[in-house]
Amino acid sequence: MQTAASHCARLLHVFMYSETRLIEIMEGVCTNDHKCQYLMEEHEELLETWWFKNQKKHTDLYIWLCIQRVKVCCANGTFGKACQECPGGTKTPCSGQGKCEGDGDREGKGTCSCNAGYGDKTCASCSAGYYTNSGDDKSKSLECLQCSKACEGNCTGPSAGDCEDCAKGYEEEEGVCADQDECSDAEKPPCEGQSGTHCENTEGSYRCAQCHSACNDSCTGAGATACLTCATGYTREDDAKPCEDIDECKDHQSRWLPPPRPSDPNELYPGCNFTTFCHNTVGSFECRECDASCDGCSGSGAEACLKCSQGYELRDKTCSDVDECSAGSGNCDAELEVCINIRGSFRCDCASGRKRVDGKCPPKPAPEDDDDEEDSSATEKDEL
After folding, report:
1. How many whole angstroms separate alpha carbon 242 and alpha carbon 230?
2. Residue 162 near residue 146 (C-beta atoms within 8 A)
3. In angstroms, rounded to a whole number, what is the distance separating the alpha carbons of residues 222 and 215?
4. Is-contact 118 132, C-beta < 8 A?
5. What would the DSSP string read from start to end of 128-187?
6. Which residue, of 231, 283, 335, 345, has the greatest Cβ tally within 10 A?
7. CA-derived radius of gyration, the chain
8. Closest CA to 128 of 174, 98, 167
9. Neighbours of 84 (CB within 10 A)
């Protein structure tokens, strides 16, 4: 008696080689590939022949259809119309270190495009600037590594002592290509004529680096100690010490002078005017505005005031706002206006949200007389 398992296996075997299964495969084989879809439609009969008659014998559809029947492809490692071998052979085209032009199709010339460091027609040797790293294992596949940047052209190993010739910026010293210090050339300094720079040696070359900001457009090296002269806003005790920032705010040459103030409040003192204070910056200074609570100041904030401005008073060593409304000095019309305190002053707003008319708050509307209302009501009744 046939078991359920054997019956299922028979059905699956029938489905595996059925036309329904073929249609399913063809619908999914060329997703978004128009060239593939065109090829499948053009050779639909061949596909059906392989499916129903040849797939057991020729299990690889790609080889049977694309290479042997339609002849639009070549086997891996071959190229061109006749599917010739790529340089280096079909197993390792281009010695495994490059790409064979046309590999796998009927196009291309079979030329090897070698990876970096590999050369010749089959990519079987190292190109200029690379050396063979075979080590002790002679059976090891070719490995080409880059020479030291101190080398010009070929080398026999990785170090600067393995160079055949030294690269520009290097010179041979005891069999080794050593970096040449271009900045040491006193007869012809490399950065001569480039104002505000100094020569800085680099590996195999040099660069003209900017002098320190403390230097007056000339220096012998990096840092503020290398300045030939100090820039404006800097000073030094002697040539062996660095140029340091001058704190202009320590003296009266760049800040306000103590009262009495000038008659014109905008008149400049030797540095900052009376409404500003001196703030030191690197190489200079700047005049910053005093706090609004100050009438002259020595620094930032209400605690640095020399005197409090109008509308402020000194409390706990800080100029603080005076609440004129609470102190009763608001001077608003008590019947028509409301006193509103603001920083350093106050304002008078019309009461009950009314708006000013010709600069004045309108009076409150007079209440209606009860007797007039009674007389009006009586008159209306008599008329009825």
Report:
1. 9
2. no
3. 10
4. no
5. TTEEE--TT-TTSPP-EEEPPTTBSS-BSSSSTTSBSSBPTTEEEETTEEEEP-GGG-SS
6. 231
7. 48
8. 167
9. 15
Distance CA 213, CA 245 (A): 10
Q: List, in order, residues 6 or more apart from 293 with CB less than 8 Å away.
A: 302, 305, 308, 309, 312, 319, 320, 321, 344
d(CA 371, CA 377): 10
The single-letter code of the amino acid at 180 is Q
For residues 277 and 269, what is the distance between their CA atoms, to the nearest angstrom? 11
Give Cα 255 distance to the centre of its chain.
41
Judge whether residue 48 has pLDDT over 90: no
Could you give the CA distance from residue 72 to residue 85 in angstroms, rounded to a whole number? 16
**Helix (H) or strand (E) segment spanning residue 34:** helix 34-42
Tokens, residue 317: 């060593």
* Residue 66, C-beta contacts closer than 8 angstroms, at least 6 positions apart: 72, 73
Q: Is the pLDDT of residue 255 over 50?
A: no
Q: What is the DSSP string of 113-141?
A: EEPTTEESTTS-EEPTTEEE--TT-TTSP
Mean pLDDT taken over the chain: 82
Query: 276: Cβ–Cβ under 8 A, 6 or more apart, which residues?
Result: 256, 287, 288, 289, 290
First to last CA, the chain: 119
Q: Specify the amino acid at residue 84.
A: Q
- pLDDT for the residue 273: 78
Cα distance between residue 147 and residue 128, in whole Å:
9
207 vs 222: CA distance, rounded Å? 12
- The tokens describing 310, both together, are 């109008």
Residue type, 271: G
Residue (of 299, 252, 291) closest to 271 by Cα position? 252
For the stretch 123-168, pLDDT in tens is 999 999 999 987 655 556 889 999 999 999 999 999 999 999 999 9
DSSP-based three-state secondary structure for 206 = strand
Tell me the two tokens of residue 122.
Answer: 């089959």
Q: Which residues contact 311 (CB under 8 A, 6 or more apart)?
A: 321, 322, 324, 343, 344, 345
